[in-house]
Amino acid sequence: MFTRMNKSRIKMVRLFAERAQSTLEYAVIITVTIAALTAMSVYVQRAIQGNLKMLEKQVNNEPK
């Protein structure tokens, strides 16, 4: 009887460990995605500012 209880407890612990691992994996994926989007936003903002600066120079250099 003790071995049956022990086996069922081991199954429960394994199930909990698998669920915890899945949750941790999702948390890591979400964190990495947010970090990548944050890092990319800096480059996108700089690219937009560069394009606006270029357009500003072109507009200012046109003859009137």
State the main characteristics.
1 helix, 64 residues, 94% helix, mainly alpha, rod-shaped, single chain
Descriptive notes:
The protein is mainly α and 64 residues long. Helices cover 94% and strands 0% of the residues. It is rod-shaped, with a radius of gyration of 28 Å. The protein starts with a helix and ends with a helix. The model has no long low-confidence stretch (mean pLDDT 85).
Q: How would you summarize this macromolecular structure in one to three sentences?
A:
This protein is an all-alpha fold and 64 residues long. The protein contains 1 helix and no strands. The model has no long low-confidence stretch (mean pLDDT 85).
**Order of helical and strand elements:** H
Q: What is the number of helices?
A: 1
Strand content bin: under 5%
Kindly report the average pLDDT value. Answer: 85
| Count of individual beta strands | 0
Helix content: over 70%
Biggest pleated sheet: none
Cα distance spanning the termini: 97 Å
- Radius of gyration from the CA trace? 28 Å
Enumerate the spans where pLDDT stays under 50 for 5 or more consecutive residues.
none
Sum up the overall morphology in one term: rod-shaped
| Strand-pairing-aware structural class | mainly alpha
